[in-house]
Structures are given as structure tokens and as C-alpha cells.
Methyl-CpG binding domain protein 2 (Sander lucioperca), 266 residues
Amino acid sequence: MMEKKRTDCPALPPGWKKEEVIRKSGLSAGKSDVYYYSPSGKKFRSKPQLSRYLGNSVDLGCFDFRTGKMMPGKLQKNKQRLRHDLLSLGKGGKPDLNTALPIRQTASIFKQPVTKVTSHPGNKVKTDLQRASEQPRQLFWERRLKGLRSSDITEEVLRTMDLPKGLQSVGPDSSDDTLLSAIASALHMSSAPITGQTSVAAEKNPAIWLNTSQPLCKAFAVTDEHIREQELKVYQARRSLEDALMADGLARAAENTRELLQGKTA
DNA sequence: AGATTCGGCGT
DNA sequence: ACGCCGAATCT
């Protein structure tokens, strides 16, 4: 009997495995079926099935089931939805990441979808121009950023950054993943200093005491040591950039010379 | 009964 | 052409 290979799948949470089985007879001989296995061993044979199970914890919007890789080029192609996404872009051009419907966060082992109500006939349009400038945000909205990965033009997913030791998150999600996104967002969205949650009350009961203009992390201290480490990183990055530019420059010069000798025009 | 496998519908 | 899933077949 042929051994079936279950390989790790880096695009999914740790412990998930992927398997490809080639059809060996029938009209579809030679084609293949792809299966995924959860860390507990449950088998999944389609993207909808996988999506139902993972709920909102992983956005499979750009997950390619056949290859098992994230393909940032692929948005869900729903004509109606595409228009909605364009309209819902913020001023800064941030994409609408809310691809999947929210999932009821209960202890039930069966994920139950939430009914999304988008029209509320009783509502009045806000007339207070003072407050209209700042749009309301969901508490702990940073959790939506969980699992986001940057990728280069070859659509390969880039390694994530490491966070300085000692940073601690506040709120319902303690993953480094969300923490990094929250801090990065805070740095981008405001020029105000980032201090983290300075009140002790916020750590005990963030749902009530959270300072919403600060990221979901505990107050932290930046030491001279931190600064020296960061300066070293910047120095090293500049060095490798310099080397890369130098190598590129030499390559271009060589090519230009070759073309000149062959009589090409620029 | 559960796992495996291919057919075939719908897009 | 392919994703998804029903159901026949296998263990």
C-alpha cells in the first residue's frame, strides 16, 4: 500500500496538515483531490467546509485550497461585494478585511453564524459634526488583524517581525500576532505618542477601562539598551541595502557596456 | 461504521 | 475546467 504524505501547511495555524491524493482510475484518472487535517485529526475536503470550521479565527479569503498557499492577488470575486468593499475603504485606503461573517463567540463546539443586520429603519443620521470626524470603532477591533501577513510581489509570504521582549498584550487576545498588528497600526494612525494602556484598571477589565486611543498592550518602558539594539538593526539594514545597490549598480554598468559594444541604442 | 474513491452537478 | 460533495465501494 502506498504511503500517504501529510505535509505541514504554513498558511494555516500550527498542526494543520495537507494531503494530495491522485485518482488512479476512472474517467478522472490522473486528477487529484486535496484534503486538510485539523490538529485533532478531522478531515476537510473543501474550502467551504474548512471555512465553516475555522470561523473568523482565520480569514480564508485569499487562501488557495488546492495549493495550500495564501494568494494575495485573489480577492473573493463577488461582483456585488467588490463594490461594497470599494465604498467601505477608509480615507487612508485601508482594505475591508472583514471578509467572513462574524461567528458567535460561545462555548458551543458548533460554530453558529451571526445574522448581520445592515439597515436599522429607526436610526437617525448623526448630525453632530464635531464627533462625525472620528468614526466609531469596535472595541478590540485589532483582533481582526490577526493572521494578516505581508507578502512580496512573487506572492510569497514574508517572515513576520519579532517583537521586543517584555511587551504584553491587554484584552481578550494575547497572541503576539495581534499585538504586533495593534502596535504597528497605532504607529500609523496617529502621531501621538504610543504609551500602551497606562491604567491598571484597563488590564483588569479592559472591556470597561480600555483607552481606545492606545494599542492593546500594557504600558512599557523603553531603555537605552532597546535604543542601542534598534540603532544597530538600522545600521545593519543600511549596510545590506548599500551592498545590494552596489551589486545592482555593477551589474547595470556591465550590461550597458555590453550593449554599447553591440551597438544597441538606449 | 468509517475511510476511501470516483462521478457528476453547478458554476 | 474545476470545486465541491454525494454516494458507491472498500476495509
User: Anything to note?
Assistant: Chain A has three domains: 1-71, 139-221, 226-266. Residues 78-111 of chain A have pLDDT under 50 and may be disordered. The helical segments of chain A are 47-54, 79-87, 129-132, 176-189, 200-204, 206-209, 224-262.
